[in-house]
Amino acid sequence: MLFDVAAAGSLLLCVAVIVLWVLGRSANHEIGRMTPRAFDEIGVSSGELFAITYRELEGDVSVAAPAAPWQWQIGPAVDFGKLTALVIPDVPPPVAGFYFGRIVVRGGKTTMIFLPMALVVALLAVMPVVATTRRLRRHRGARRRAAGRCPSCGYDLRATPGRCPECGQTVRAAAAPASPLGIRP
Ligand SMILES: [Zn+2]
To answer: pLDDT at position 1, please?
Structure first.
């Protein structure tokens, strides 16, 4: 039950991410917060999920944490190859959409992490797919059991209740006898 709820949440998130993925093909959608000495950005653009942070390390560090509220922003699509080459020239550009780069320069620390959106969508889809498969299998098993068939392979068990001669599955007796109308799959 808890798994089903988590799977439903994952499915919603997956759909939202797919929408962002499509929108992010031609634009940059991100939430960010920014102060003069620091910023955080998480967004989707050009097929990438990206997170970028910057912290000033010198001077009055007490004001370095962004106190500004998170804001939704839309801008032009980002060329991540160009961006990383410009900001973190020592680290090679993204490979297949994966990237981790960090640089400390002129008293400021910049960190960039990218993941391919295809991977994010696939990860979010795992739980919904498993939950749906389990549900369908349970449903099919119950339907077969009600029809006097083996819940795992569908073999007719009216002559041999208790154990399936086809696949060896032990079958507990159905709570109710098979429908006289004979429900067929
Ligand atoms: Zn069977």
So the answer is: 79
Contact predicate 27/42, CB 8 Å: no
Q: Which two tokens stand for residue 72?
A: 């939704």
The Å distance, Cα 130 to ligand 1 centre, comes to 22
> For residue 75, how far is its CA from the centre of ligand 1 (angstroms)?
58
Spacing, Cα 99 to ligand 1 middle (Å): 49
Average pLDDT over residues 7-16: 95
Cα 177 to ligand 1 centroid, rounded to whole Å: 18
- Determine the average pLDDT of the residues in 179-184: 55
Tell me: the pLDDT tens digits for 118-164? 999 999 999 999 999 999 999 999 999 999 999 999 999 999 888 99
Distance from Cα 184 to the centre of ligand 1, integer Å: 16
Rounded CA-CA distance 165/88 in Å is: 66
- Other beta carbons within 10 Å of 70: 14
CA of 77 to the centre of ligand 1 (A): 55
Q: How far is the CA of 171 from the centre of ligand 1 (A)?
A: 9
Please tell me the pTM assigned to this model: 0.74
Q: Tokens standing for 107? A: 């008293």
